[in-house]
């Protein structure tokens, strides 16, 4: 069982930056692939980024590639999402998720993830 708590969301102007954090409970954090997803009103949940359990492999949605960076610190049981050059269309609730089954990769599919955080709101004003 893993509990995930996101933080770092807020209101930012277009072009600005935010760093989201997701703190995980438990001693097996390094065994999970981690992902970030977002859900905007009127839209389906969307994959943002994912990182393999050892941090060597990362994956990004085309819409955020080059602007967002996912990273993890297994010693701190935390995964991060550094967001730069934010756009109004990045406005959403951002969720982190943990996948117990992943090997050396990480999935883009939300159905692959076993545990989810409660989400943190990111609002980008134009």
Question: What does the model show?
Answer:
Helix content is 0%, strand content 47%. By secondary structure, it is mainly beta. Strands 2, 4, 5, 6, 9, 10 and 11 form a seven-stranded mixed sheet that branches. A four-stranded antiparallel sheet has the order 1-3-8-7, with no helix packed on it. β7 and β8 form a beta hairpin. The model has no long low-confidence stretch (mean pLDDT 96).
Classification by helices and strands: mainly beta
Counting DSSP E segments of at least 2 residues, the number of strands comes to: 11
Alpha carbon gyration radius: 13 Å
- Compute the number of helices: 0
Helix content: under 10%
Low-pLDDT sequence parts = none
* Mean pLDDT across every amino acid position: 96
Share of residues in strands: over 45%
Largest sheet: 7 strands, mixed
Overall geometry comes to globular
The first-to-last residue Cα distance is 40 Å
Task: Write down the secondary-structure element order.
Answer: EEEEEEEEEEE
